């Protein structure tokens, strides 16, 4: 393995580069017999794709997915599903100035040191462009989990730069370019406009939730469900922190309040984020991620060239001033991939286990 395949029984191998002819993935382990078409996948790709508002990169990619294998007469066959997305709007000349320099905050330096060669066009393999195949694979996992367990996934932005976003209603999320759960996003738009004019960028905080979770997913000790979630989320470009449930706020809590009390009606709280001992409780999975500011900015910064000489780098081209704006559907997809893989692993090992108690959930 060289870091391009994720999952054990539901394994997704991601391939391609930002400015190559195409990107895509191969899904190995999808159960047979599920109806699947491009339309089942395209909706989530449309939510992630670039060029959808003035606040994101203006690269115009339709991100039309093709199913090349693993589906016959509209039904999965149990064989590998190959998904292909053509790149159609590359502008490689934008990167001619950085062929021999290293952009601060990017993978240019580490890729060169590790492999001895790198593709500088759009970041090559390290580009967030490669999250599109992840979203496509996540859509397949979402469909199976919804049909099998009724599990659904939803996410939103809870902070943009230094602007916390108070939660109002999930219904607002699809109605604005930020995936913000608020009705009025005018202040967020003004903030992004000022950042773009300044040639700078910002980070974001994203919340993602899995509802209708089955009990028992996760493997102690090293394949804990929460550990695999953290592993998956840290695999997303620009993520610098992952929280489950109360997360870092649990530092200031006391044991008398942090532990989620159990009652005959369900759990009283969900500080654990839906996982105890690495195994799902049946409550909602609650995950938050911290995304760093975009590294590709117009503001000049100090760096070095390939000969080790001091240089000043200014990154031109089409970039997201906040990569977190398009991160919500990606985080949903990653969570779905983890849950899907663990669902199949649980079914393989414990499919015949009869629970001692009926499942309980959280108070609603």
Report what the structure shows.
This protein has 364 residues and is of the alpha+beta class. It has one domain: Chorismate synthase, AroC fold (4-Layer Sandwich). It is 24% helix and 21% strand. The protein has 7 helices and 18 strands. The strands form 6 sheets. The chain has a 5-stranded antiparallel sheet with strand order 1-2-3-7-4, with helices on one face. Helix 1 packs across helix 3, helix 3 packs across helix 7 and helix 5 runs antiparallel to helix 7.
Q: In percent, how helical is the residue content?
A: 10-25%
The CATH architecture term is 4-Layer Sandwich
Number of domains: 1
User: Strands of the largest sheet, in order across it?
Assistant: 1-2-3-7-4
Count of DSSP H/I helices = 7
Distance between the termini: 43 Å
Poorly predicted ranges: none
Strand content: 15-25%
Give the overall average pLDDT.
91
The level 1 CATH classification is Alpha Beta
Return the string of H and E elements: EEEHEEEEHHEEHEHEHEEEEEEEH
- Fourth-level CATH superfamily: Chorismate synthase AroC
- Mind telling me the C-alpha Rg? 21 Å
Task: Please give the number of β-strands.
Answer: 18
Structural class: alpha+beta
The outline comes out as: globular
């Amino acid at each position: 393995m060289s870091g391009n395949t994720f999952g054990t029984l539901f394994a997704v191998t991601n391939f391609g580069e930002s400015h190559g002819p195409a990107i895509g993935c191969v899904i190995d382990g999808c159960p047979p017999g599920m109806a699947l078409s491009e339309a089942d996948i395209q909706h989530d790709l449309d939510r992630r794709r670039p060029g959808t508002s003035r606040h994101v990169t203006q690269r115009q990619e339709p991100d039309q997915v093709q199913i090349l294998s693993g589906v016959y007469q509209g039904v999965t066959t149990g064989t590998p599903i190959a998904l292909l997305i053509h790149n159609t709007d590359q502008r490689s000349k934008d990167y001619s100035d950085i062929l021999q320099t290293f952009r601060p905050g990017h993978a240019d330096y580490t890729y060169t040191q590790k492999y001895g060669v790198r593709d500088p066009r759009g970041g090559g393999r390290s580009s967030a462009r490669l999250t599109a195949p992840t979203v496509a694979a996540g859509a397949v996992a979402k469909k199976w989990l919804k049909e099998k367990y009724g599990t659904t996934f939803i996410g939103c932005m809870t902070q943009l730069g230094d602007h916390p976003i108070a939660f109002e209603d999930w219904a607002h999320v699809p109605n604005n370019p930020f995936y913000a759960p608020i009705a009025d996003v005018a202040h967020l738009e003004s903030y992004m406009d000022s950042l773009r004019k300044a040639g700078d960028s910002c980070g974001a905080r994203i919340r993602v939730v899995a509802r209708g979770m089955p009990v028992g997913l996760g493997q102690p000790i090293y394949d804990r469900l929460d550990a695999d979630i953290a592993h998956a989320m840290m695999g997303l470009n620009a993520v610098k922190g992952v929280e489950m449930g109360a997360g870092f706020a649990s530092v200031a809590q006391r044991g008398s309040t942090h532990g989620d009390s159990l009652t005959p009606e369900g759990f009283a709280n969900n500080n654990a984020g839906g996982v105890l001992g690495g195994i799902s409780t049946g409550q909602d999975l609650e995950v938050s991620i911290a995304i760093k500011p975009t590294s590709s900015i117009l503001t000049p910064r100090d760096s070095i060239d390939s000969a080790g000489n001091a240089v000043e780098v200014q990154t031109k081209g089409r970039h997201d001033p906040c990569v977190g704006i398009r991160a919500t559907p990606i985080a949903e997809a990653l969570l779905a991939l983890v849950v899907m893989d663990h669902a199949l692993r649980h079914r393989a090992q414990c499919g015949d286990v009869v629970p001692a108690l009926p499942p309980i959930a959280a108070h609603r």
